[in-house]
Structures are given as structure tokens and as C-alpha cells.
User: What shape does this take?
Amino acid sequence: MDNSNTSPQQSPNNGHTEEATTSSSTRSTAPVSSESEELRRLLGKAANVLAEHVARCQAPGARIVPSAAEEEGEEKGGVWAERLATEFGQLAAATEGVGDGIWSEIKRICALATNTWSEGFLYKLYAAPTAIGVVGEALTAALNNNAHVFNGSPVGVVLEAVVASELAALAGFPAETAGGLTFPGGSYSNMHALMAARNQRFPEIKTHGMAGGSARRPVVFTSQHAHYSVEKAAIAAGIGLANVVSVPVDGRGRMDAAALRRLVEESAATGGTPFFVNATAGTTVLGAFDPLPEIARVCEDHGLWLHVDASWGGPLALFADRSVFDYTIPHGRVNSLTINPHKLLGVPLQCSVLLVRDGLRVMKEALGLGASYLFHDDCDGVSWDSDLNTNGNAGSAWARRLGGSWDVGDATMGCGRKPDAIKLWIVWRYYGTRYFTTRVNRARTAALGFAQMLLDRNRAADAASSTSSSPLGFWRLLTAPASTCVCFWFVPRALYDSSAEFEEMRRLAMCAPDADIFGQRCYDQRWGGATKTLFARMGVLSKVLVDYAQLDPPAPGAAGVPAFFRLPFNNPNVSAETMASVLDCIEAAAAGLLAGGPDLY
Assistant: This one.
């Protein structure tokens, strides 16, 4: 049994650990002279506990997900989750706190958390933060500032403006006007872009709402492979899913610009008012990058707001060496862009930045209300939160970028704003730009290396099969990696009753993947069931954590792409050994199920 990441010994006392049950005798009861001394004591203890947790997480053989089977003798699932809810519940009934007994419970929480610090965490579109990023997160908590007005977080507001300006310059936005804001995740950044575009194009909606009898029907366009946050934003904006047009993608998963033009013109001809196009730089499943120059031309011809959801791919587009990844955002032709530093740059969750080409004036006009209890612009220079700088230079570059005031909260749909830009600035300042470049270069190189490893393993199995029995199965790439994501299948031999059919499919797999992901004729829909079965089996093994996805058919009645493994490379330190262990785990899962035959798939 692997105990490298398990919890302390359980006691029968409501599931708490033995350390927790004796907490009353170890609880600190001596008065502290100040909050600062209490903070110093707690942070000192926390530093040791968290560093030990990370060390366990990074130890060889550490589990990625907690093993419910070891803890409770059951498979992980709803029953296990309910048991944990009971263990951690009944807060209101406990009239006294546990004091220093909290540390045993913190350790328990660490033991139950998903291990993102391991190289084997290849699950979703983020990875472990950098150590200095954790410091930045702690700093934002200790400052407890609110970045809605300048007085609430002077340095937070300034650092937000600085990092947004720097990112905007890298994205090719005009330096004299471009600004930006941080949001808790790319979905909120995308939503704010759509809301601002809607109210700019339909100002009557801001006042009268969608039920106010507007003669115009707003229509949004986004690709079939775009993130669902665009559709959710349309729901929140009152536009409705019926007015979100799904634009077909080409054979590489990129938005078809010609189809976009046709659909925009059809919408306008049938009573719609197209106003917003969402392009993607790094689609959620394939990591594909939409052709921005061609899409920008359509938007310019029809007067549409072009937003780029670069939540995942933005760091690659902005920081990668061109010899590693060459993708250019057309200068000055994009209205807004979302980038998530918590995905590829090592900044802790959550940190998303929305860049706006024409500055925050657009956001403030579209979304602002000028609440007098927050935004004191009538103080004749008395309040330091109303002037752009000490000289009150309303014509400065910062004035244009920020829409006339360092009070930026009126450019959002909320009020309370955590100054997430602080942790991004700290990571950037600590490591420098070259570090970001190295991170994303390594991620791209790792994806290409892993794809080649699949092909090499096929060739090795093919060579071995010429002198021995047929191999356990074969590997098949869906497509060459478009960015930092690899999509593939492992097809078990047990899936086929006929040896001849298996050998024919294996022969096809030895070829490079077709350029058109929907045009490949060698897909077998049974591969999807096999992928899901192998994924479930790997969850029990818990040494690596990967994910699977599937693609809907490109048109009604067409066959979709069966479920496949999807590995995003966000951790720059994933070694060749870890990549090989992923393949080994999948093969081990297939070998463990081989005796059951095709019905298991």
C-alpha cells in the first residue's frame, strides 16, 4: 500500500484524527500581544505544513487523487463524498473552536486534496502554481484590499493597470489606449466582454432591458469548439441560446471564416443584428487556434465586436519563441482578449485578465452606474482616488487606458474585487519574462514529444509482433498537436473478435493522422467506450490523472469523433519518464481488463 499521501490514523470520534481529539490540551490559550504576533506564529506553522504537503505530493509514487478504497473500503463516489460531508459538518453546533487542533484537520484536508503538484497531474487546463505565486496569493489575503476604488487598494489598482498594459502590448493592442481588468476566471472575463459589446451596440438595453421592446435582436457568433462560457454569458445577458450561432470548424478544429461570413449575412437578412464574434486561441479540447486575420476581416466588414478567448492559448501566443510556436494576433484589429495566467504561467488559481483595445472607458460607459457612495468624482481634486495622477493630467496615457479614473470598479458588473494582479505581478517580477517564455516553450515541446512517443511505441510494438504474438493494442493520434494538448486513443486488442480486423485497424494507425479530423474513415465508435473504461480503471490506479473528451458531429446526422484521451501539458517540468508512465498506466489498465473480453468496452 502506498502511504505517501494518505491521512493520519482515524479515530472513532466523528471521523476526526487522534491529533484533533486532543486539541483542547494543546490549544494555545495564552493571550497574544497583537494580531501580527498571532499571524507570525500561524504562518510559521503553515509554512512547514504546506511545504511538507508539497514534498509528499512531489515524492515518487505519490497519488494524484485520494484513494477512497484505502480510506473507506469503498469506491470513490457519492457515498464517500457524503461521508466526508458528515465528517467536516456540524460547524454551527460546535460552540468552541478547536484552536491549534486545526492543524490536524488542515493536514487531513491536504491529504484529501487532488495533487496538482505532481508531474502526473495532466487532467485539466492548469497545473501546480510556482512557489512565489503561493507567496503572492498569501500576500493578497494578508492585504485584504478591495480593488474597486483607488483608496481601497492603491497598489493593487496600479499593478492591475501595469500588468494589463504590458500584456496588451504583447498582444499587439495600441499602447496609447489599451487597458484591462482582472476577473476570477476566463468565464467572467468573456462575460464582461460580451456585456460591454452588447450595451455599446444596443444602449437601449442598458436602460430598458431585453423586455423593453427593442426593435433589434442581438446575435452572437462562436465556433462549435468554443468554450461554453460564451453561451452562458449569452444566457446571463438575456440574449438567449437561440441567438448564439454555432460556426462550423475546419478539419483542424478552427473556426471556418468563410462560414462565419455566410452566417453573419444570413442572420442580418432574417432580422437579426449580429454584434459579437468570439474567436478562440487555444480551444478547450483540441487546443486549436482560430484564424484571426480572416475573422477580423469579417468583423470589420460588418461592424462586429471581435473578442478572442485566449484563456488557455494566450500565454503561448504572447510569450513563446516564434521558432517554437508562431501565432500572431493582428495588431489593433481585436476589440478584447481574455488571457488566464493561472493556466500556463504558474500563477495560482484564479487569475484572468480581460484586455480591451479602446480602454476601460468602453467598459465604464457600457456597464457603469457611477454610484456616488463609491466613485467620488466631484471632489475637486480633494480625494486622491479621483485624480489620475498627482498632476491631474486627464490627457495622460493612463487616463485613456483607464477611462478617466483609477476607480476601475465601475467597469465591472460587480463591486468587491480581489486584487489578483498582485500575484501575477509578483511572479512576473520574480522570474522575468524569459521564465514565461521558457515555460510555454517547454509545454509546447512536451506535447510534441509525447505525440512522437505514441508513434514510437506503435513502431516498437509492430517490430516485436513480427516475432511474437499480437500486441496488447495500438495507439492512434486524433491529430497532430495544435498547441500544448495531445488527443489520442489506445485501442485494446480485446475490442475485436477478429484478428484480421484488429490488424487492419492497427495498420492504419501506423500512418500519420489525417489533416481533417472529421474526414478520417478509420474511426471505430467502439473506441469511445474503450477510452472511458480505461479512464475509469486508471482512476483506481491513481498514479496519474488524465482526462478524456469527445467531439460532437460537425453536422446533424454525421458521425462524431468517439471519446479519446486528452492530455494538456501545462506543467513545464513533465519528464519523459512521466510521459512514459502515462502510457504504461493505460496499457496496464488494458491488460487488467483483457480477460473480460470485448463486452467490457
Notes: Residues 216 and 242 are 15 Å apart (CA to CA). The two ends are 29 Å apart (CA to CA). DSSP finds 22 helices and eleven strands in the chain.
